[in-house]
Amino acid sequence: MTQAPGTGGHTPIGRGARPVVAGHARLPVSTMLMLAWRNLWRHRRRTLVTLASIAFGFAFAVLMIGLGDGAHNSMIRNAIKLGEGHITIQPRGYLESPANHRYLADGVGLAAKLASLGVAGSVEPRISLQVLASTPANSVGAAFEGLGGASDERVRMLEPRLLEGAWFGSGDARGIVIGDGMARKLKVGVGAKVVLMAGKQGGDSQAQLGRVRGIFDSGVDELDDYLVLADIGLARLFLEGEGADPARMPVTRFAVYLDDPDTLDMWKSRLEASVAGETVVALDWREMMPQLVQFLFIDDAGNYVFLVLILVLVVFGIVNTVLMSVLERTREFGLLRALGLGRRHLLLLVFFESLLLGVLAVAIGWLFGGGAHLWFAHFGWNMGALLGEGGTAMMGTFMDPVVISELSRARVAQLTVIIFAATLGSGIYPAIKAARVTPVQALRT
């Protein structure tokens, strides 16, 4: 066969002929990552501004959520100490309908059963009653609580907060301690007599005489205006009036304080299996204080609203940076497509730019946000000075005046995943737009 001169054995391509492409060009992932990294720094200033805005917003979110968690945990710890412990053992139905005739008749047997479980913490017997506290000057409704001894967490919390007088001693048959709000209502001081009167199930009433040993200021008005504390022996006299056998040491409830709060669910399951039944129930602090749980949920939702605003900043920042980069390189993408680079590889190339931008932003954000968190975790933030006197008390509890930033491992992972997912999601649209580039139209731009 005779060849045309100068053709070298190849068939010439006419105007109407199509070039034959054996297949799409392929780029290794390492090469695409290298190209994506170089593309990010083509416009150094724009990339730095985007990184700074995302990292600052993320760092600020980390700090605010850390302080918010610290404040919430402080309120929970104080509520548990001032309240009925991590887990409460009490008569079934008492929470829904408190009454003085509802009590645990065999306190001795139940205490022995709890002791046999080897609870990692303390188990405190208590008697809670609704009474009328009366003096010659006034009468007010009160919550009368009989405590087992000085080891009770409520005693440890309130004894250092005595304004005057002293705490009642173990076995003190008449001593009571009241809040400063109650003292003002009853117009009494240390040494004054207070008559405690309670109704009986049959309709009669019974009364006991108490003498004020001390006056405390818990910082929570709900407690200072309403709570009367005494030795459990004085409170048990009211249960005897309801027909209880004093030899069996009747109580209203047992407050269980755990050494490790993280074991709450485990110990609750054990207690439910061992002591709970038709007449006895084991409730954790969340079931005992549903209003506090609702308040913390709503307040926590506010923190997530703030985080959503940060996510909006992240999304718009990355979309702006990557999309502008894509639009500026339309001709370049068209050339790559003409050379045989597939749409999938072009999509991945732009997506890797978002990936690298997100990794940098999260790393820098944790560098500054984590540093701020560690600072406030060590030195704390004086919320008492900011909110003023009484400003840290709410929902029957209070937060410590100096709030320590707290971030659990789960929260760290959660924040990282949310920001990183937002970063990757914001790179999808620019990547799709780059992948849709057609060689002919792109090369004409």
Along the chain, the helix and strand elements come as: HHEHEEHEEHEEHEHEHEHHHHEHEEEHHH
Overall number of strands: 14
* Morphology: elongated
Main β sheet profile: 6 strands, mixed, barrel
Strand content: 15-25%
**Arrangement of strands in the largest sheet:** 2-3-8-5-7-6
Poorly predicted tracts of residues: 1-23
Global mean pLDDT: 84
Work out the radius of gyration.
35 Å
Which structural category do the helix and sheet elements fall into?
Answer: alpha+beta
The number of helical segments is: 16
Distance between the termini: 45 Å
> Approximately how much helix is present in the residues?
40-55%
Question: Can you put this structure into words, describing what you see?
Answer:
With 445 residues, the chain is of the alpha+beta class. The protein has 16 helices and 14 strands. It has helices spanning 29-40, 44-82, 107-117, 153-158, 180-186, 221-224, 232-241, 264-274, 285-288, 290-328, 330-338, 343-379, 383-387, 409-426, 428-435, 439-443; strands at 87-91, 121-134, 139-147, 162-165, 175-179, 193-199, 205-216, 227-231, 253-258, 280-284, 381-382, 393-394, 397-398, 402-403. The strands form three sheets. A six-stranded mixed barrel has the order 2-3-8-5-7-6. A two-stranded antiparallel ribbon has the order 11-14. A two-stranded antiparallel sheet has the order 12-13. A hairpin with a 4-residue loop joins strand 2 and strand 3 (139-147). Helix 1 packs across helix 12 (343-379) and helix 2 packs antiparallel against helix 10. It is elongated, with a radius of gyration of 35 Å. The two termini are 45 Å apart. Mean pLDDT is 84; it is low at 1-23.
